[in-house]
Amino acid sequence: MNLPPPFSWLWSAWMAFSHALGMVMSKIILTILWVVGFGLYGIVLKVIGLFQKKPTNPHTY
User: Fold this and answer.
1) CA 21, chain centre distance (Å)
2) How much is the pLDDT for 34?
């Protein structure tokens, strides 16, 4: 970009800050989505009754 020196410094500082902010926010958003996604998946499987251990021979200990 062809900007005067004070503006070019401001622009480069803003770009560095926005890059760091984007990295942090993407980690936060992905973590929330992962926890919510697998949490809902686990709750649905619990309600449906999938992957529950069924007794192989209920007449013995």
Assistant:
1) 15
2) 94
DSSP label at 53?
A: P
| pLDDT (tens digit per residue) in 17-52 | 999 999 999 999 999 999 999 999 988 988 888 777
- Residue 3: phi, psi to the nearest 5? -120, 155
Q: Quote the CA–CA distance of 15 and 25 in Å, as a whole number.
A: 15
| Alpha-carbon dihedral angle through residues 23, 25, 28, 33, given to the nearest 10 degrees | -110
25 contacts 17 by C-beta, under 8 angstroms: no
Residue 37 tokens read as 């996604």
